[in-house]
Each structure stands twice: as structure tokens, then as C-alpha cells.
Amino acid sequence: MTSTATTVPHILLVNPWIHDFAAYDFWAAPLGLLTLGGILRDHGARISFVDCLDRFHPLQAALPLVDKRCGRGPYIKTTIPKPPGLADIPRNYCRYGVPPEWLRHDLAVLPPPDLVLVTSLMTYWYPGVRETIAVIKSVFSDVPVVLGGIYATLCAEHAERHCGADHVISGPGEAAILPMVARLTGWRPTPRHDPTDLDTLPLPALDLTRRLVHVPLLTSRGCPFQCAYCASHRLQPRMMRRSPTSVVAEIVHWHRDHGVKDFAFYDDALLVDADRHIVPLLEGVIEAGITVRFHTPNALHIRNITRPLAILMRRAGFHTIRLGLETTAFERRQSMDRKVTEEEFLRALNHLKAAGFAADQVGAYLLAGLPGQDVAAVESSIAVVKAAGITPVIAHYTPIPHTPMWEAAVEASRYDLAADPIYTNNAIFPCRSETFSWEVLTRLKTLARA
């Protein structure tokens, strides 16, 4: 590696707090941020990582809970005031993550960085991002802070006005990271990777986490579908894939070198073109002779599940399967997506059951809170899924800017969604025209669990 800068920079990566009515570690990790960390480290930069959501912080009085079946668990949380406009929501609003004094301690013991990179996820989590950046600046007042991630991409203008960062970067960061670091620090290493070829990128710097209990996997970027409620095309316009060989090598690395058993696929289209992607990938896992558990929190496309693939998934270690069903009103779903028919749904379930998956392993996401949707429609979908012998999983609809459904959401909402991303919080059913009722959500969840 060569560089035109005489001093290699120290770059701090920060995963910010979540401010919300509810949050839980469903195999979450700041994969994009740690991928950039891996790239920078591979070029010779000094990298540090501070995780505001750290479930295993050493200042805790007791060990945190970990679900031994899958590695998930709750975050530390502290009740905080609700944002303006949400005072009527009958539930506590919390800061999820370590207390502020712990964060200040973690920052103070670090060598001063030359640059701080902060990521962002849900658009309505920006208050946690803003608070995190404020603490960073109180400790490192002269260090430039750069914000990237999903909120920074979907709500760039809002982020520039409100988050407190010195710079906001939109879109995928792999191509932008080295030029941005060069501009802010003067360090200019010779590029070693091709951002358009995912196989050339190094492993994400997940080893910087305090305790690695699960690993997120991204075997592809983008999605061939254009669902009305999804921002995948905005976030990643081009479909790209890693080779199955490189993914298997990563799984084996985290399992054998770090003892990881639980892996979560976060692809938007994991099963598309299965014979050239997921099939050789899972065959490679089986040939490696490792025993691991795979989870699919981002949902699988149902029509791609064949009987041979279901059997292969079972053999390779799939443990938690989530299907992207969204609704069982098949005859009226054309305005949402064209991902699945009723026949394809039932056929896929038969394949999964025949492969040996239990009902509590297979869940179907059902969107609740869509513009114009009534509660009875969700209740009907829950009944259909339960009758099919699997688990209904309520997924609250989040209005997302730049999606085809955004205008309908704005029109249906009792909030001014365009004025502030805080009102897109899916926990409050923002597209219900009437006053929010927590009892409605409780009833749906009880019906799904019964």
C-alpha cells in the first residue's frame, strides 16, 4: 500500500443511540459502517469503534440476556421525554443503548481521532443520531464528523439541517469513502478495491465489536422487484452479488475463528436466481462441515422456494425463516407488489413443512398500518396465515420518502409526514387517520400469538 500522506489517520466509527418506543436486537449490526471500517483498515488506517447500542458494555452491573437459540437480546434502555407531537402515544419513549456517561467515558479514553464516521438507520431514529453527534462534539470539538447511512440517504436535506454533523454523505459509501477521507484528512492511499465488485471488498470490521454473538450477512445488494412500500431501489439502484465462494469463506471465518453460530441474511433478494447463488452457497456451507444457524429477518421471496431448495435450507442450518407475504388479499395486492400469488404461497409452505421446518420457525410478515387499510384486513390476513399452519408476524408499515406509496401515506396520515421524519415512526401507525389506539396494536399482536 502506498500513500501520498505522511500521517496515517485515526478514524473513529460510531453506531448511534436509538430513540424509539420499542427496539430490540434482532441480529442487528452496523454492517455498512463496519464495511467502511474494513476498507479503511485494509488500506492502513487506524480504526476504532464505539457502539452506543453495546449490549455487553463492561460497566453493566449484570450480564445481559442472550437468547441461546439465536443470539438475540434486549438493549439497555432509559426512559426519555417524547418528541414534540407524540405526547399522546401511551407508551414510554426510550433511549436504547448505553447511558451518556458511559459513552463519554468510552470516547475520552480513545486517542483523539482525525475523523469520526457516524451511521444512521431508520429515518425516525434521527433524534438518537443527533444526541450521539452532540456528545461526540462535546468530547472532540475540533474533529470533523461525517454522517452516512439510510437516514442520511433518504432524508439528506433534513439531516444536513438537524443532525449536527459537519458533512452528510448519501448513498453507498464504498466508492465515496477514500475520496472523502482524503478531502478531510489529506491521507490518500492507493485504492485496493473495486466498489462495483463486491468480492474485492475486505470483510467488515465486525471483530471490533465487544462480543460477537451473531453476524449479519449481505450476499447481494439491490432487488429486482419494485414494491410500492420499499426504498431498496433508492438505496441501491444496481443489483450486485458476491460469489457464493466468498460468502462461504466469510461464514467459515467467523465461525471457526470467532466462534459465531448465528448468521442473519440481510439481502433484499436472497433467493432470486437460486441455482447460481443461494444453492451453491448452501452446498458450500454443508461441504465445509460446520454447524451454524441461519436467520432471515429481511424476509424471503416466497415464489423462489422449491422443494429441493427447502430441503437444502434445512440441511444447511436455516433456523428462523421469515416470508415476505405482506397481505393475504391476493386479488388486491397489485398496487403494492407482484411478488407472490396465493398458489405460490401455499406451495412454498408445503415445501418448507415437507423439509421438516416447524410452525414456530416459519413466519409470514403481514404489513399493518398501510394507507387506507382497516384493521379487519390485517385480522383476516392473520387468520389465513394461522390456518396455513405457520406464524403471523405483524410488520408495522413505515412511510418512506421517495417510494411509490409515499404520497398516499402523506395524504392518509394525521401527521405532517413531510415536515418531520419523526412522524413516520411505524410504532404509532402514522397512516391511521384517527387518533392512535394502542389497544388496536395490542389486539393484533395477541391475535397473532394466540
TrEMBL record:
Q: Where is the B12-binding domain?
A: 15-191
Query: Where is it found, in Gene Ontology cellular component terms?
Result: cytosol
Among SUPFAM superfamilies, the record links this protein to:
Cobalamin (vitamin B12)-binding domain, Radical SAM enzymes
GO molecular function terms noted in the UniProt entry: 4 iron, 4 sulfur cluster binding; catalytic activity; cobalamin binding; metal ion binding
Instruction: Kindly give the CDD domains that the UniProt entry links to this protein.
Output: Radical_SAM (cd01335)
Q: Which cofactor does it need?
A: [4Fe-4S] cluster
Instruction: Report the residue ranges that make up the Radical SAM core domain in this protein.
Output: 209-437
Q: Which PROSITE patterns does the record associate with it?
A: B12_BINDING, RADICAL_SAM
Q: Does the keyword Iron apply?
A: yes
Q: Pfam families annotated for this entry?
A: B12-binding, Radical_SAM
Q: Is Protein biosynthesis there in the keyword field?
A: no
Q: Give the UniProt keywords, A-Z.
A: Iron, Iron-sulfur, Metal-binding, S-adenosyl-L-methionine
Q: What is this protein called?
A: B12-binding domain-containing radical SAM protein
> What organism does this protein naturally occur in?
Desulfosarcina ovata subsp. ovata
